[in-house]
Amino acid sequence: MAVWRVKFTKTKRDKLAQVLWILNWFSVLTGAILFSLGIFLKVELNKQEEMMADRDIHYVPNMLIAVGLIACAINFLGGKICYDCVDTNKFLRWKLIMLPYIIFTFFFTFCVLVGALMCYTMRGELEESLNLGLTQAMKFYKDTDTPGRCFLKRTVDILQIEFQCCGNNGYKDWFQIQWISNRYLDMTHKDVADRLRSNVEGKYLMDGVPFSCCNIDSPRPCIQQQITNNSAHFNYEHQTEELNLRMKGCRQALLDYFTHIMQSIGLTVLIIWLFELSVLTGVRFLQTSLENVLKQGDPDSESDGWLLENSFMETARTNLNIIKSLGKSNQIDDGNNGDPNINVPSTSIANYGPDNVPPKEAPEAS
Amino acid sequence: MAVGKLTFTKAEREKLAEVLWLLNWISVLTGAILISLGVFLKVEIQKWQEVMSDQGILYVPNTLITTGLAACCINFLGGKICLDCADTNKFLRWKLVMMPYVICTFFFTSCVLAGALMCYSIRSQLEESIFLGLRNTMRFYKDTDTPGRCYLKKTLDLLQIQFECCGNTGYRDWFHVQWISNRYLDMTSSIVVDRLRSNVEGRYLMDGVPFSCCSTLSPRPCIQQQISNSSAHFNYNQQSQQLNLWRRGCRQALMDHYTGIMQSIGLTVLLIWLFELLVLTGVRYLQTAMENVIRLGDPDSESDGWILENSLAETARSNFNIIKNLGKCYQIDDDPNINVPTASAEQEVPSRGVHIPVTS
Known about the structure:
The complex is a heterodimer of chains A (366) and B (360). Helix content of chain A is 54%, strand content 2%. Chain A has helices at 10-47, 59-84, 88-121, 123-139, 152-162, 190-197, 250-296, 312-327, and strands at 6-8, 303-305. In chain B, helix 2 runs antiparallel to helix 3 (88-121), helix 3 (88-121) runs antiparallel to helix 8 and helix 4 (123-139) packs antiparallel against helix 8. Chain B has helices at residues 10-47, 59-85, 88-121, 123-139, 152-163, 190-197, 238-244, 250-296, 312-327; strands at residues 6-8, 303-305. Chain B: It holds the Pfam family Tetraspanin. Chain B: InterPro entries: Peripherin/rom-1, Peripherin_LEL, Tetraspanin/Peripherin, Tetraspanin_EC2_sf.
């Protein structure tokens, strides 16, 4: 009761081998696509690495790169095998390798599927990483004289301009940090001293934002200082004013950007996985039908091809027994499955007859 | 005394035909490259069309696109012709077309050269156009409520942010323009009224710039108001002033951008022109060689190929005569087929009477 038995004539086998040869070469291309998708994702993540706190999110692109390289190698080998399978003589060369090859490829396609699913599950960690990274970057915005942090101002400004966002969750995040360095504050001035004193930690807080938060869609020149004070500006009401500054938070903007990239990549990898699975099925059919042809002896005859020789349950049971036997290989085995070649002396005494029995007198021949 | 005479054996002629077939197909590709270069330049110019005053610059990419299309068609035809030229019989099909084809392609390659030279010569027109366009855009920056001009503020802000520039020649251009609309000025405030009155045209001028002029390289938060007043800001030294805003003018920034693009395009088009000229020379040799073979009668013999049958001066003279005669086609000339009665009429010979002696 084989799983999915199909009959193959000689021409069908030859055609299958040729088609699989082309499909395997196509799969080498898709392996290269996987590799390049991994590289692309890695480059994009590296571009924004200053905004991300230390979290291990690079395992996703690394996995895609590794899987892509292995896919290229496996499908290259598969192409060579299928090319030789047209001829029964050449198939004998590959006969012993084919079954391990198919098993290995089956587990490999499983890795491809895992890679695709990881693209979708990465989101949560990414959000956490961005949240922490952005908070840090905004805190160190003013430290343009501290080595190691002197480019954070530029990075944050360019981020807010490029991604059209402001702050972590919104522009009000800038009200809670001091983003103007003390070097540029006139400490002798009364207003400055008052503001510093009004704050527990002695920070110079104000309801103003950096220029990179300004929205270019606004019909009026940008209002960056005294944002919450309606009377400071003519014809201005900050509760209803939506066009003056960017309303979106940078965490949300970056998350949307990366989610979009990863959903596209995940979809492509799923499609590649389905393709690899169909190629593997074809190779399995080819292998079983060629082995049956060899068993029958006549290279031109029809033969059967299948996915599994017995039903699914029996195959699982047989494989489980094989694995169990591998475990017991060092024990002496004298049950019914004992190896008949081993000379095991029997425990019962050899029966040569009762002791001290005088030999029968031979009747005299007269 | 032919120009560039070469002798071709049959094998050489066939090889030349094959090579030319391949080169013609490559030329179709280069024609496609010309088209894409034209489209690219058109898109780039149209991106910043709003800050340019004169739309006549678009004739350069349009020329490139048309030339590219013509190149594809001409070289496609040339490929078909050259494929047939390997065989003397098939060549007879194209015999009458080839000479006009060669002449047409010769004039076409000069169009390609003109296209390449245009890329270099358009620079001054472009600069003028950008200068005037930017000046107008800055004047209309505040008019976000006027239909037709409401997007100029956004365009100019984007330009200054993207190209890292400020104003026309520099940031001081903003000091001469009212860039804050009257809608957002409190006319009841005495400061505002004073400023408006201090100006002849009643404009609200200030030494401030829009936020898009702010430099991201500055170590301190951007100073946009009272830029020329050092005492208005704490620790506002020379270095702070240098790094605070973008120093380059947007006219210079846009000119550099477009000059770079057009120099690369011009160089590529020149290379394509040389390639087309080469292919044309090969086709001319093939044409003359095949015609001479047919004249000799034996398809397997050697034949001569040339660029011009006579020297350049003689060819020019004969062509000139042809053009002159085309002009005179309605005048009666001495075509031997027309019966023109001569001016001196022949004397009529009196008919002799035939004297038939009467016999009895």
